[in-house]
Amino acid sequence: MSKMNLQASLRELKEKRDGKIPAILYGKGIENKTLWVDAKDFIKVYREVGESTLLDLSVEKDGKQSVLIHDIQTHPLTGEIIHIDFYQVKMDEKIETDIELVFVGVAPAVKELGGTFVKSLDKLPIRALPGDLVGQIEVDISGLATFDDHIYVKDLNIPEGIESLIEEDTVVALVTPPRSQAEMDKLDEEVDGDISQVEGMEDKDGVGEGESAEGKEATAEDKPADKADKEEGK
Q1: Short-list 89, 96, 9, CA closest to 55
Q2: Sites in the chain below the pLDDT cut of 50
Q3: Contact by Cβ (8 Å): 151, 172
Q4: Which of 46, 67, 80, 167 is geometrically suited to a Cys-Cys bond with 75, CB 3.0 to 4.6 A?
Q5: How far apart are CA 68 and CA 54, in angstroms?
């Protein structure tokens, strides 16, 4: 399968362009480059390759570079991509990254027993040569027939050349049993006790337990006098 290609152009640090996303290209032993990439083109490529598949980044006269999308930054309100980090790899050096886990199939413990599917991992941290990377690893959950069944890292179909960086007995997914009626009833119970009686709590007027409004006002009136005494003593 051939790598996807993305065009980029060199960018001045304070330059702005509509429809373009600012980016940086860096890597071991190379000089950092600030770039522009077309927003629509990048989104299309990113949906295909994610962050664990190599792509060819063409930077004007420099030709194609094998890179990973190392990180993207998004606007906190709109979710719009506002910056991209590209990491240029060396094909003969192993790198560490995350591969997305995609859960497929139906768990009998959910469908037949009414349990809740729980995944402990969304991505698997790995080490591999760039050429051995894959975009995702599928996890078949059809083996979760009871609430005692678990899927572990050792059960994953990890392609040859890829080394997991977490313990093989780490749980990836399981199914938890539905809550009993007693547990549901307990959740519906109202909390006993008056919150106003909790030590240190204030009522809506801001007066704590054992403190009168007059006492609160008197304390406030003492503050200017204290300040005057300090100024007089200077």
Answers
A1: 89
A2: 191-193, 201-202, 204-234
A3: yes
A4: 80
A5: 5
| 206 contact partners, CB below 8 Å, separation of at least 6 | 216
What integer pLDDT is reported at residue 183 of this predicted model? 61
Q: Could you state, in order of their start, the residue ranges of all structural domains in the chain?
A: 4-89, 96-185
In a 13 Å sphere around the CA of 148, the CA atoms on its Cβ side amount to 0
> 116 - beta bridge partners?
176
User: Domain spanning 96-185: which CATH class is it, in words?
Assistant: mainly beta
Tens of pLDDT, residues 70-103: 999 999 999 999 999 999 999 999 999 999 999 9
In CATH terms, the superfamily for domain 4-89 is Ribosomal Protein L25; Chain P (2.40.240.10)
Q: How far is CA 35 from CA 65, 75, 88, 190, 194, in A?
A: 13, 19, 13, 58, 61
Tell me the per-residue pLDDT of 106-141, one tens digit each, with 9 for 90 and over: 999 999 999 999 999 999 999 999 999 999 999 999
User: What's the pLDDT score for residue 155?
Assistant: 97
**From CA 134, how far away is CA 29, in angstroms rounded?**
25
Q: Who contacts 69 (Cβ-Cβ below 8 Å, separation ≥6)? A: 46, 49, 50, 51, 55, 84, 85, 86
Structure tokens at 124: 């698997």
How many Cβ atoms sit within 10 Å of the Cβ of residue 181? Answer: 8
- Specify whether the CB–CB gap between 124 and 153 falls below 8 A: yes
pLDDT of residue 37: 96
Q: How far apart are the C-alpha atoms of 141 and 20, rounded to whole Å?
A: 40
Report helix, strand or coil for 221: helix
